[in-house]
Amino acid sequence: MLLLAGALRAGAVPGVSRAVAVFTLAVALSAPPAWCVLQRRPPRSNLSANCWSHLHPVNMPNSYNVKFYHSKALTSPYPGSHVERSQVPADKVGWLTEWKDYNPVEYTAKSVLAGPSWADPQINDKGFSPKFNERDGEVERRSLNGIYVVENGRPRNPVGRTGLTGRGLLGRWGPNHAADPVVTRWKRDGSGNKVAHPVTGKNILQFVAIKRRDCGEWAIPGGMVDPGEKISATLKREFEEEALNSLQKSPEEKAELEKQLHKLFSQEHFVVYRGYVDDPRNTDNAWMETEAVNYHDETGETLDNLPLEAGDDAGMVKWVDISEKLKLYASHSYFIKLVTEKRGAHWSEDPGLGCHE
């Protein structure tokens, strides 16, 4: 039985057959590095990563003419394993393209099958009756990109085939929600003046980056949204845990950090992106979605006094100058690029890298 994925929510318009919105996904990014292990990457779409700039990310869930493509979600071997995905040609990614011979590999990591609190049981387990496309108790099973198809009891990746079924390393069937706080400040010289790029003349932004322990790639210090947790709480918690090592602080030190961060996280901020993420952990039945939010310290007075210290999933943490040369985890380079556009900051020395309609 097929439960609809698409532009119209179930039962929203009586008598009208449900429509399917096609989310062909492509998160491209400037030649991003592979996962922590060497992976074979399928040919990319001709669509340049830099052409994402003409999209309005916050409105993407309602923009059904937007096309995306899988890239990292097709890489092999699957992260943390020797499992090889079935190869998916670029013209066969979309579900609307018939492919009777499609034979994806089934894989769910042992760490997920062990039944930790953050993971669902297997679909056919007795007593497990997930409410897909709904808020299921404390678990958010709604997608930021609208209704998704449920086929044979399993959610179907709204973007297309990945060559792998099951959940891989992801805990939830369907969308797995994350939050990514992009914390920025202006780069300044010894006198406190903003530093401009010598070629573009635009001021240089810096952001707090962590080096992930699992794969060694630099990334935004984000993480998974806990059941029942508000996105705003996840954003603050993940920054504290990964960039400030709050889990290892004394109650007094935590209180001081809270005081310093309150001003930053309570000020005006903007949502950089909400939706599906092209992630190497994605499968046909489980995928990553995120909300990336920019918190900017215009004067630098708040962040200059924060003691950066890697913690939790982070191996290292530091301030990083933002430019197109950044090679970051998953779709993080794209999020960073959107922040520079919003702030009017330097991104590329090549004026031709923008997107033209």
Automatic annotation (TrEMBL):
A GO term, aspect molecular function: ADP-ribose diphosphatase activity
GO terms (BP aspect): ADP catabolic process
Highest taxon above the source species: Eukaryota
GO cellular component: cell junction; cytosol; mitochondrion; nuclear body; nuclear membrane
InterPro entries: NUDIX_hydrolase-like_dom_sf, NUDIX_hydrolase_dom, NUDT9
Stored Pfam families: NUDIX (PF00293), NUDT9_N (PF25969)
Sequence ranges assigned to domain Nudix hydrolase in this UniProt record: 186-342
Catalytic reaction(s) noted: ADP-D-ribose + H2O = D-ribose 5-phosphate + AMP + 2 H(+)
EC number per UniProt: 3.6.1.13
Record-stated family: Belongs to the Nudix hydrolase family. NudF subfamily.
Subunit text: Monomer. Interacts with GLOD4.
Role played: Hydrolyzes ADP-ribose (ADPR) to AMP and ribose 5'-phosphate.
Entry protein name: ADP-ribose pyrophosphatase, mitochondrial
Organism name: Strigops habroptila
Encoding gene (name): NUDT9
